[in-house]
Amino acid sequence: MLGLPSSVTACLFDLDGVLTQTAAVHNAAWKQTFDTFLKTWSEQHGQAFVPFDSGADYHQYVDGRPRADGVRTFLSSRGITLPEGTPDDGPDQETVNGVGNRKNLLVLQKIKEGAVEVYPGSVDYLKAAKAAGLRRAVVSASANCKDVLEAAGIDGYLEARVDGIVAREQHLPGKPAPDTFLYGAKLLGVPPEQCVVFEDAQAGVAAGKAGGFGYVVGVDRGGNAQGLADNGADIVVQDLSELLTR
User: Fold this and answer.
1) Which one from 14, 63, 200, 220 is the annotated catalytic residue?
2) Which of 52, 166, 184, 208 could be 216's S-S partner, Cβ–Cβ 3.0 to 4.6 Å?
């Protein structure tokens, strides 16, 4: 009924791009933030401006990673190194955390404007998983996870939440490290080999593979199927509703 191996007893869902249609919001916010930064940087250093690529750059360097990791990884790909700063840095500060917080302000603005929409197939899958008695947790790099779940009206379907705030409190490295997913399994009281990971990011499926989880489902929302498969997805679907018909 759920298209999963019979050994699976728990589901670990990524948020953006798997349950909610906020991945596009994040992508747009990253592009606006990085393009503004890169224009200023190129002018100051006499370099040609090369804009952030919402396809290749987003999937390879940013998608699924904690905010600061995404900033650091992308800027490193351009040969740019900034001071780390602290998580409390203002959005005007030229630090890794400052740039990340700039992006977060844009996302929060979009959330307040009602930009959070769910994928109907994912809601159907959550309901089916609950009815089947599977344990359910959300594992997201986003520090806004709680607000997004509540805005989307799906927080009641999930028993545990591991997000950017929890990761910081528990000193958990972000995806592609498997630690946040492992912590989610721990909260549910289910061993990793009995859990399925649902991810739309290459870093996320890599984390699922590295953690020894029983099954990893890649969710391709935009032409990233091969990248998901290459990074460890056991199966790639375009929507979770496909699994309900298997």
Assistant:
1) 14
2) 208
